[in-house]
């Protein structure tokens, strides 16, 4: 198990940069259409157009997820207990 | 013709309920055949019954309508039947007979609810569901001792919900004189109680914890059954009874984020999926609160799709549990190498729950979010959007990542038995089929659908949302490191607080009893001592009196009477 070459290629340390590279490439691909697609704001009548700005869904997805993870982490300080907590 | 049909019509759910009692009577291949054919027979019956109310049974002063066929009911009954079939297939070789029978009675009762035309029938099937599901859980006690206590807590929550619901129904019938189950307004004590009773089964706050508390203690197949019926019948009755009730929007939004946060904190893979049930039902409850035709279509369609992909996810997790006997993310990882079928199907389920394009979640969840946009609900839309990203975070990536990838646990278990693999392939196929060809599902929704999920704009924005949510997961992976913990929830009040209060109460009452006992004992002792003083051997009333004293007293009394007489 300790031998690097016996591991599945996903687990080899030297492949880690490649995996990150692939992920970044996919993300770039995902925002590329922003240069061609025109988004329609959902709430034009209320005067809100932020959802039609450049890359809104990308940064909104990233930021809200970060907020949820950090929020969960903070709540965890108060809520987490050993998993044997209820065992009598 | 319809009348003739009507005279022999029976509630489709009864096929499974009667079947539940037939299963113990047969063995081997005949039992397997029954398990697979009964749900299909039910499905056929669901579709053979034409729209309308067909059977009236007099009960006291009221009439029961157990065969009331509606578009909503048929949709839910359809997916419940399909679920019973796939669940039966998955459970065929490993489930105990008790679990199988209970699961069929449970599924049949859920279908019974979807065909209930009146509140009394609805209530009867509602309570049978509580019993059936408790039995499914209880049946796993031999394999997992924790299942017993969990099943009792589960039953208590549902009996409480049942009592609230029944009080509401009684008050409602008293007020309106009608037992019909139709759209209601939450504007009286009666309807509020009914709404609360429904919401208990939906996993609404504060009682959301029962889902993550109970379901993961069931067997691998047991949890597949449990995930499908109770919460989704609640969605069905809310949809029929309380569409457009505004408070449901906020209850639903709470459930959505509750599910995400708790799933993010969770270590047990099946508890992660249990929390994500609350999350997904939250989407449906929000849509029901919005109440437009599109939103209601969205809630119904999402319930349909959700049953399939959640069952698929739980079949995948159940296979892992069965083959490794492990449930905790901290102990799992690297399983894709030896369980490719389980991993692939788990990933399909994860993509579907995340509303990835070309899966069922994409075409059903977008109905709900678009409905919020069409109604001009800015806050709700932005919240639902964040929640959609959060689903990819907690169920879409977290579950498959920690179970099948992550650090290699070194375990190399094989894929599970063929029947379990087939059940997973069947549901994977449905996840993608609905995603690629949504028209089939759209055509059986309660209202006509005028919506095209596959626009360039929608595809681009959804990919961006999800891929960047995934990016956040990997960037924040150090913060996601699993720990051997659980998270406190409202169930702390009935699992810990009430126990502490109970113990404290018994200590206090013990002291009071001690003091009371001492007082009583003191009183009795004092009484005996007094008695002894007066009547004891030396007591004034027990002494032998000399006869001289007697004569003296008689003389005194004679003198006294003489004096009284003559004076």
UniProtKB/TrEMBL annotation, chain A:
Organism (species): Thiothrix winogradskyi
Biological classification of the source: Bacteria, Pseudomonadati, Pseudomonadota, Gammaproteobacteria, Thiotrichales
Ranges annotated as spanning the membrane: 20-37, 57-79
Keywords noted in UniProt: Membrane, Transmembrane, Transmembrane helix
The name this protein goes by in its record: Uncharacterized protein
From TrEMBL, chain B:
Domain NADH:quinone oxidoreductase/Mrp antiporter transmembrane, first and last residues per copy: 116-383
InterPro entries: ComplexI-like_HydComp, ND/Mrp_TM
Chain ranges passing through the membrane: 7-26, 32-50, 71-92, 104-126, 154-174, 189-211, 223-241, 247-265, 272-291, 303-323, 335-358, 378-401, 422-442, 462-480, 540-566
Membrane topology: Multi-pass membrane protein
Keyword field contains Glycoprotein: no
Keywords annotated in UniProt: Cell membrane, Membrane, Oxidoreductase, Transmembrane, Transmembrane helix
Pfam families: Proton_antipo_M
Organism the protein comes from: Thiothrix winogradskyi
Superkingdom of the organism of origin: Bacteria
Descriptive protein name: Na(+)/H(+) antiporter subunit D
Subcellular location: Cell membrane; Membrane
């Amino acid at each position: 198990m300790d031998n690097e070459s016996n591991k599945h290629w996903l687990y080899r340390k030297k492949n880690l940069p490649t995996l990150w590279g692939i992920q970044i490439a996919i993300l770039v691909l995902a925002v590329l259409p922003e240069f061609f697609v025109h988004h329609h704001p959902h709430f034009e009548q209320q005067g809100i157009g932020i959802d039609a700005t450049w890359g809104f869904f990308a940064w909104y997805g990233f930021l809200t997820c970060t907020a949820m993870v950090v929020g969960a982490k903070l709540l965890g300080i108060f809520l987490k207990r050993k998993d044997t907590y209820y065992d009598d | 013709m319809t009348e003739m049909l009507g005279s022999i019509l029976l509630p489709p759910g009864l096929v499974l309920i009667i079947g539940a009692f037939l299963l113990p009577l047969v063995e081997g291949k005949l039992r397997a055949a029954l398990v697979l054919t009964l749900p299909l027979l039910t499905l056929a019956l669901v579709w053979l019954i034409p729209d309308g109310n067909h059977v009236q049974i007099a009960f006291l002063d009221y009439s029961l309508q157990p065969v009331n066929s509606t578009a909503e009911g048929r949709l839910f009954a359809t997916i419940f039947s399909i679920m019973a079939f796939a669940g039966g297939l998955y459970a065929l070789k490993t489930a105990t007979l008790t679990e199988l029978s209970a699961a069929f009675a449970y599924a049949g009762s859920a279908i019974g609810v979807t065909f209930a035309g009146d509140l009394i029938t609805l209530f009867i099937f509602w309570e049978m569901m509580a019993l059936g599901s408790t039995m499914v859980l209880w049946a796993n006690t031999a394999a997992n001792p924790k299942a017993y206590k969990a099943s009792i807590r589960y039953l208590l929550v549902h009996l409480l919900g049942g009592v609230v619901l029944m009080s509401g129904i009684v008050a409602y019938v008293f007020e309106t004189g009608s037992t019909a189950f139709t759209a209601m307004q939450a504007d009286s004590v009666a309807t509020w109680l009914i709404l609360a009773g429904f919401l208990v089964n939906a996993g609404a706050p504060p009682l959301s914890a029962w889902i993550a508390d109970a379901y993961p203690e069931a067997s691998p197949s047991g949890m597949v059954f449990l995930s499908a019926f109770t919460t989704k019948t609640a969605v069905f009755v809310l949809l029929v009874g309380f569409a457009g009730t505004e408070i449901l929007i906020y209850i639903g939004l709470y459930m959505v984020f509750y599910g995400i946060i708790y799933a993010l904190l969770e270590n047990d893979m099946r508890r992660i999926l249990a929390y994500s049930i609350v999350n997904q039902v939250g989407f449906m409850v929000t849509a029901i609160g919005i109440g437009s035709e599109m939103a209601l279509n969205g809630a119904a369609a999402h319930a349909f799709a959700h049953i399939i992909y959640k069952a698929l996810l739980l079949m995948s997790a159940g296979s892992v549990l069965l083959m490794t006997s492990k449930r905790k993310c901290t102990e799992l990882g690297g399983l894709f190498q030896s369980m490719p079928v389980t991993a692939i199907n788990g990933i399909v389920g994860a993509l579907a729950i995340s509303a990835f394009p070309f899966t069922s979640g994409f075409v059903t969840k977008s109905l709900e979010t678009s409905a919020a946009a069409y109604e001009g609900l800015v806050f709700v839309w932005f919240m639902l959007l964040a929640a959609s990203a959060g689903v990819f975070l907690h169920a879409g990536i977290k579950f498959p990542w920690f179970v099948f990838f992550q650090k290699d646990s070194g375990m190399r278990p094989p894929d599970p038995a063929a029947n379990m693999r087939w059940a997973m392939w069947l549901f994977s196929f449905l996840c993608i089929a609905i995603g690629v060809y949504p028209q089939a599902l759209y055509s059986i929704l309660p209202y006509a659908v005028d919506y095209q999920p596959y626009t360039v704009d929608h595809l681009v924005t959804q990919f961006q949302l999800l891929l960047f949510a995934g990016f956040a997961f990997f960037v924040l992976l150090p913060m996601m490191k699993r720990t051997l913990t659980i998270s406190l929830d409202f169930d702390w009040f009935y699992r810990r607080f009430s126990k502490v209060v109970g113990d404290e109460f018994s200590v206090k009452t013990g002291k009071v009893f001690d003091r009371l006992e001492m007082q009583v004992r003191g009183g009795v002792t004092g009484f005996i001592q007094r008695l002894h003083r007066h009547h004891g051997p030396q007591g004034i009333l027990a002494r032998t009196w000399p006869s001289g004293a007697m004569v003296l007293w008689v003389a005194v009394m004679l003198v006294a009477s003489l004096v009284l007489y003559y004076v």
